[in-house]
Amino acid sequence: MPQHDVLIIGAGLAGQRAALAAADEGASVAIMSKVHPVRSHSNAAAGGINAALNPEDSWESHAFDTVKGSDYLGDQDAIEIMCREAPQEILELEHMGVTFHRDETGHLGTRAFGGASQARTYYVADITGQALLHVLYEQLLKRHEKVDRYEEWFTTSLLQDDDGRCCGVIARDIRSGTLEIFAAKSVIIASGGCGQAYKPTTNALICTGDGIAQAYRSGALLMDMEMVQYHPTTLAENGFLITEGARGEGAQLFNAQGERFMERYAPNKLDLASRDVVSRAEQTEIDEGRGFPDGTIALDITKVPKKRVLEALREIVNIGRDFAGTDITKEPIHIRPGQHYIMGGVKTDVHGQSSVPGLYAAGEVACVSVHGGNRLGANSLLDTLIFGRRAGEHAAEQGRTRALPEPSQSRLADEQASIDAIIARERGGRRVSEIKDELGSTMNENVAVFRDEQKLRRAQEIVARLKQEAESAWIDDRGTVFNQDVLGALELGYMLDAAETIVAAALERKESRGAHFRTDFSERNDEQWLKHITLSRGEDGSPQVSYSPVTITHWQPQERTY
Amino acid sequence: MGEYTLKLRRYSPESGEAPYWQEFKVDLEGHRSVLEGILQVRDREDGTVGIRCSCRAAICGSCGVRINGRPGLACHTHLDKAAAAAKDGETIVVEPMGNMPVIKDLIVDMDAVHWNKIQRVTPWLLPDGEPPEREYIVPHEAMVDVTQSMACIQCGACVSDCLSMEVDPGFIGPAALAKAYRFVGDPRDGQQRERLEDLAEDPQGMYDCTHCFNCIDACPKGVAPMNQIMRLRRIAGAEHGIDDENNGHRHETAFVKNIERNGLLHEADLLPDSYGGKMHPRALPELVGSLPVIARALRRGKVTPAKALLHHKLPDQQAVRELFERVESKPERYELNLYIVGVDEDPPGASA
Q1: pLDDT above 50: residue B350
Q2: Are A287 and A387 within 8 A, CB to CB?
Q3: What does the pLDDT read at residue A441?
Q4: Kind and range of the H or E element at A77?
Q5: Fewest CB atoms within 10 Å of the CB: A199, A258, A429, B34?
Q6: Do A322 and B58 touch (CB under 8 A)?
Q7: Among A35, A106, A151, whose Cβ lies nearest the Cβ of B137?
Q8: pTM of the prediction?
Q9: What pLDDT band is residue B99 in, cutting at 50, 70 and 90?
Q10: Mind listing the pLDDT tens digit for each residue in A41-69?
């Protein structure tokens, strides 16, 4: 049985950053991922990473923008930490080898981003996430003697000892199909979000809420699950992302009448207002008949000089050409709001500790909460790196005084039996893929930009039925080597848990704040709802609601306009 | 909606049976990707079909396969174009990438080949001394320049069809050498010379590439690995005086000189020139060593004694000279880099 001080599940930016930090603290570290680390969804973060690194900028300004962007639901102590530590993190990444864009003097250069009062977004063309991910992997390879990598291993369950402390995981080697127990003094979940519970989504096929559901099933509290971000610029057909960097470089939004409608919704920041504001504006235009016949809005990137587009927005030139048949240097591209990110997740403190001892979370799977009701563009990469590193450091330090746990082998047989049972299911009910499809469209129709009680109740009923159906959903593959079919069945269960908690929290919050807009409660209500909704899994398996206060340090809630 | 035929190469290691082909019909619009086609097969008909995939948008590098015999990403190839390019104009043939062992169906063992080679080139930055208090100050152009290599998503498409690797599986290969350029071209790295010496001394290193262009064709991200290999070689020769033991660099120089002099290739001069001229001590033994090849070429009529030994200049030698003058009068060497230059298809003056 492999034993480590720190075991990290997920190898995107948060996971890899945690692994490097824990290894540099001297801990024995393993990092495990169901895909090769460089396939992780951090790749998709195109635009950049925020930090107040310029002398004219200040972390306070960055923090205020983040607090305001969060619609005052973000915890200000955590936001302060993130914004204070951001400049040093950027410099460390630069020293590791990230090829950040330079200005003409050879210093780090920035671009503008949504909801920010300064141009403080550092970037590598429009492949920032990819560049960061690959450079962190370089560093992981450099530490190959200190960090064991379990690539293409699928975590099926978290293990807890008799005191409820997390002491390892059970994982399946995807290549061979064998199950194994991994013991660890601490487990850091960094396995990303649950965007695949929506269809369409900008999220990769691997973003199936595994960590959210596994932590929830282990008794960890989830927080802010109602806060689901719709990105203002995604392709209508397949949900692919057009980076906010496009608007940061000067691209503009128009409705079908050729009107620059953002002038009406955000007279100061226009196209670069917060994402929730822009997405709502677009959806309003579409719903009121001013969109294009295919339910879209036009994003005009021809406003950006062509040389600049080719140098700094190259990836969306490719995406436009390959996936929308549009040459963005010559004509507008049609977009609409699409599911992109979940602000909520496993509730953690500023060290990444969840409510289950020994269990940490970092990155999109976690909710610290630095994003509150709405995440600013280019703050998610920052979140993954700052809190990934902090979790890695904290877990390594905690491990120094602890003995290595020896989880009982008995769970292994149970786990094997439950996987065998899925494989052996008879072809009676529905296919896994059918249920997943229905879940995705249900969430996108009913738990999207504009919500109300009726829609949410409908979603709740459907999700409950799908959970039932998932119990007998059958698969084709009965093999052991790369049985992706059986993993898909497990992932479906995770997505359904994530969806169930999103709907429960959205029903609970009877106000409009950040990304959560209730047409039946269309105002923000600080008196009653300036608090986090937390969820735990009840004995009957249903989500139980509780609340957690919002930490306010410097910035009292104000009216939010852009 | 259209109907497309996918012919997939299937292999299940557990069955004990040989690989086989299986055809499926999919119902999708033509601009949808081959990956979406395969996923439809998996969702509706046969969940056992194995393929790695994640982002669907050509950024994660998971779904490298061969489509109609050519390497690429399944998510990056449209069904209609794939069908049009098919041998029979209809059946889209999808098989696993080459040069790597197959694990199951379209899934290959990238660890055994691709990732091993990446690790071979010491793939992390090695700066000299302690880092500065702030960022390293480096030219804007240098960062844009290495961004072309950073754009690599490690999909393995170039490795799949590398001809040199097919002949010599030990060849470091296009992806890993492009990765090496990411450090050699990065002004922050302090080990450029050591890296280049290492890649030059390794008989399966950067001089093992035969310029077949397959990797440039294969790459879905415009990384142009062969160009990065050529840049490694040029920097090794020009800036570090590293000798190409395979004689490739001298051959290239001799080739260019030969064209400048004759307008057309004059083979009889080329061989000795490649070894430093007819008077060079190595010229004669090399010539003798090459005699069997020369004899074969003569026998098969690829060259005739008259053509090989007599000059055959172009009638308009002046045009060739002008081309050379134009290129050589440039103050700086012009490196093709898509991130700087872009693909400007507009007529001059038309761009926004």
Answers
A1: no
A2: no
A3: 97
A4: helix A76-96
A5: A258
A6: yes
A7: A106
A8: 0.93
A9: very high
A10: 999 998 899 999 999 999 999 999 999 99
Set of chain A residues whose Cβ sits within 8 Å of the Cβ of B55: 39, 41, 43-44, 204-205
Express each pLDDT in A309-351 by its tens digit: 988 888 889 889 888 889 999 999 999 999 999 999 999 999 9
Q: Which residue among the candidates A111, A275, A389, A518 is catalytic per the annotation? A: A275
ipTM of the complex, rounded to two decimals = 0.95
- HEC assignment per residue over A415-479: HHHHHHHHHHCCCCCCEHHHHHHHHHHHHHHHCCCEECHHHHHHHHHHHHHHHHHHCCCECCCCC
B143 Cβ under 8 Å from any chain A Cβ: yes
Write the DSSP assignment of A24-48 as a string of letters: HTT--EEEEESS-GGGSGGGG--S-
Please indicate whether, in this complex, the C-beta atoms of A95 and B131 are within 8 angstroms of each other: yes
Residues A166 and A356 sit within 8 Å (Cβ to Cβ)? yes
Q: In chain A, which residue's Cα lies nearest the Cα of B349? A: A306
d(CA B74, CA B132): 43
B174 near A CB under 8 A: no
Residue A513 DSSP class: B
Amino acid at A368: V
| pLDDT tens figures, A421-460 | 999 999 988 999 999 999 999 999 999 999 999 999 999 9
**Amino acid making up residue A457:** R
Distance CA A235, CA B141 (A): 32
Mean of the pLDDT values across residues A456-470?
98
- The reply to whether A39 belongs to the active site is no
Which residues in chain A have their CB less than 8 angstroms from residue B342's CB? 306-307, 310-311, 314
Contact A41 B140 (CB under 8 A): no
Q: Which pair of structure tokens corresponds to residue B187?
A: 């002004």
Q: Which of residues 202-221 of A touch B (CB under 8 A)?
A: 204-206
What tokens appear for A370 in the block?
A: 């630095």
Q: Is A557 on the interface with B (CB under 8 A)?
A: no
Q: What is the 3-state secondary structure (H, E, C) of A351-394?
A: CCECCCCCEEECCCCEECCCCCCCCCCCCHHHHHHHHHHHHHHH
